[in-house]
Amino acid sequence: MCRVNHHLLRICRRIRFGYYPCITLQRKMGSIGDNFGKEYKEKCVSASIELIRNIGIMAHIDAGKTTTTERMLLYAGVIRAPGEVHKGDTVMDYMEQERERGITIVSASIMFPWNGHRINLIDTPGHVDFTVEVEKALRALDGAVAILDASAGVEAQTLTVWRQADRYEVPRIIYLNKMDKIGANFKTCIQDIEKKLKCKPLELHLPIGAGKEFRGVIDLVSLSKKEWSLNHNSFGASYSTKKLDNKSDFDTWAEASKKRADLIDRMADLDEKLANLIIERESLDHVCSEEMNGALRRITLARTGVPVLCGSSYRNVGVQPLLDAITNYLPSPADRSYDFVQSYAANNDLCSLAFKIQNDVQRGPLTYVRIYSGRIETGQKIYNVSREKTEKSGRLYVAHADELNEIQSLSEGNIAVLSGLKDTVTGDTITSGVTAMNAARRWLAKKQGVTESEVAPILAGVEIPDPVFFCSIETASLAYQKKLEQALEMLQREDPSLKVKYDEETSQTIVSGMGELHLEIVLERIRTEYGIDASLGDLQVAYKETTHSEITDTFILEKMLAGTKQFVKMTMSVKPDPSAHGVITLEKGISKESREQLSNVWAIHLKAAQRGVTSALSSGPLLSFPVTCVQLCLHSLEVGPRTSELMVAAAASQCVSQLLRKGGTRLMEPFMRLEVTIEDRYLHAVIGDFAQHRSDIIEVSERHELKVVLAESPLSELRGYSKRIRILTSGTATFSMEFSCYKLMSLQDQKKALTEVTGIEM
Asked: pTM for the whole thing?
């Protein structure tokens, strides 16, 4: 009996008497059965593409992303009662580590209906260590909601995620959350948005009340007052809407009318159709709410302005208007144009992007895909264009956080989850077969006026940042070593920002990540999910190397291999290039002799040389760190008959290594951008501490009687900073940091780093 009760308790805790949509909507249906399941699927899965919204929630840590998502699910009828982050019972933060720490670690997807639309929502992390989760999500989304803490304005990670959204040209709306907090200031936030995010905010709301008295908003579009009951037990499911008029509340009506006219005036500068309408009517007062909504949608899609709303999700105020804004202003998949997708859509072939991999104990690896064209069916064979492999998918699902609902097929514009794909990784392009890929290649070649061999019909992948910390990982017993390797392989598929390599000199496995917390979470998951007793070594800073001089050299490879003479002769040069990041491309020489000589070299040999260059740059001569900020130029290349591509790649690798050894390399170290919020009395102590640790003060500003220090500091000086700042400010300070850039170290600092890494006094 105890076992039965325990099992029932576990079920109740998971569904929370309404976790599954079918259980939640029992209030409306009266019974749960097959007919209900079919109706729900038809309601949520079979919506036309114009009624789909693929959106992400992005923000600085603790701005209220997950809390806002919980309220959305409540009002959409997916759950009966909202979970709370501090209680560890939210739908979207389902991992044990997320619930223990009260933060979002991995992005979670869920689907729900609202006003006849279907919203596919992805809740993303706000912590800098997990910024790659935001990157993966934005690659697959059509729109985003940026949430700001109204008492803090634009914070460090807000800027990071905003820049990420800029890179993918994602239309956005802004939601000023926590308007009930002491210090929340709507006007200051608007100024902050304009100054720091470099966009044109269009405030659609005016707050009613301040601090704990905040209870609603004035909607400038409909010129109405929306007020919520502050009784927490009602969960804000209902609210009163009253049209403003100049009789019952003249002062409020007058202020709102003036603000509305100002809003329309600013919108007219951004939307030509609205401007013509105003000129035709010769007034700002005769624009109806439908016309304003149409203009706001056009402005949002064009990314010339950003609608701004406000509320307090924890107090259940303002979330329903946010949901309305999502459906009214953010784009459907049909509104987003991807030139590349047309090559597949022309023949109605499947084109999709794998943007997230998740390991499931029972189902194995699950692949989250965004479908751009065509259709996916359960059990379908797919072709991975990026890997040039055919795989057979297993079952097809739609995601509800960590729960999956199985379906038979899903069409364009949707986000699907596939089981059974063992070779697919984040960023891969998936289509229905080789025939579809070849048809897309022909279409692209014809449109671009080039040969088919010059085009690659793959979607742009996900930009993965370089790791900044690394350490060794070891098991308590060699018996766990094989399991550890398998666990790390799976975790790398899930998280592309986690890098793993084996150091042959020390016989250690090295893991690299985005920060201390990132690696701590990896270790916890290895212990809890995979049952491996493992531990991490001391954290080390992930330095990089670069050359500091220009040098040209010739390398000759000549040897017999299996009775065949292998001959490669090449001349290369290397020089510093501060703008060169990521994969360094081997440039061709620009002299007349170089152009003539290289024009006769086969393309496969040039590609082999590039592979060799990439391999050599992964390990510099100084401390075996990756080499960056260099420009490599190929001046000549001679390849003997019957010489293999492998020998060409090996020659290129050895040539680059020879150049770097002769020219010498210097260390570059990662710098972090910190934002520290402190009381005025601790300002001098904090600035003095920065000065002692090779840091640059960028700006000191004020925020609600507090000082905000913006600084850049070497990552090596920030180990243990949380403890240091706690001592300096008696535990009153808060801080956040994000990666800024790599900078060249001085010879003195480099000497210290060499001693620290090698353990040998230099």
From this structure: 0.78
